[in-house]
Design brief:
This protein has about 210 residues and is mainly α. The chain has ten helices and no strands. Helix 9 packs antiparallel against helix 10.
Length: about 210
């Protein structure tokens, strides 16, 4: 009850930090999709790019979040604005599941379907947009769901560099040794991750059914 009372007393600040959190996660996810989906398509069509692209994304994923923020902090244009730095870091973390699932989805399209499309006179670009991507979209969304959940969690660390978000409550609570403040940031972040997982999962199932 103390946590609920604290959250109600600080609801304006909580709403602001939640919106900041959503902005960081949403923008980084869009950037990750704009980069990751084309890369996944590229490595599906050009297998020689598979290992270097996936290996690079895997290496980024293994770097601890605070260390990645530290690596990017000296970069002039990025280091000047903590939100830019946080969005780039979140984008890099979200790449692996999107690239991997796009690759898996495109490679999972039945070759017989592609041959039928070619027999109907479709070009390679028409096959991609009219056959491969529609059939792979549910698998791609599965990767986006994982990326969003990862981003919601990592975005809490972004408060350590002053980028805002719900992590501000968590770090403030840790410095004050106050569980109420910690939970005021942790509970909404967990709810956001859960809602994102359920929402994107629902969309994924609908598209798979169609």
């Amino acid at each position: 009850m103390n946590v609920v009372r604290f959250m109600l007393q600080n609801r304006d600040d909580l709403v602001d930090q939640t919106l900041q959190h959503l902005w960081l996660v949403g923008l980084s996810t869009v950037f990750a999709m704009l980069i990751g989906v084309p890369l996944g398509i590229a490595i599906a069509h050009r297998p020689r790019l598979n290992k270097p692209v996936l290996a690079s994304a895997n290496i980024i994923q293994t770097i601890p979040s605070l260390a990645l923020f530290g690596f990017l902090l000296p970069v002039p244009w990025l280091g000047a604005r903590s939100d830019r730095l946080a969005i780039l870091a979140l984008t890099l973390y979200a790449l692996l599941p999107i690239i991997r699932n796009t690759y898996t989805g495109i490679c999972g399209v039945d070759p017989a379907v592609l041959e039928a499309g070619r027999g109907m006179g479709l070009t390679e670009s028409q096959l991609l947009f009219q056959v491969e991507l529609p059939l792979a979209v549910s698998v791609i969304l599965s990767g986006v769901r994982v990326a969003v959940v990862i981003s919601v969690g990592v975005a809490t660390i972004a408060a350590a560099i002053g980028a805002g978000g719900l992590g501000g409550f968590i770090f403030r609570g840790l410095s004050m040794v106050d569980n109420r403040v910690i939970l005021a940031g942790a509970i909404p972040a967990a709810i956001l991750a859960l809602l994102a997982d359920i929402g994107v999962g629902w969309l994924e199932k609908r598209l798979r059914t169609r």
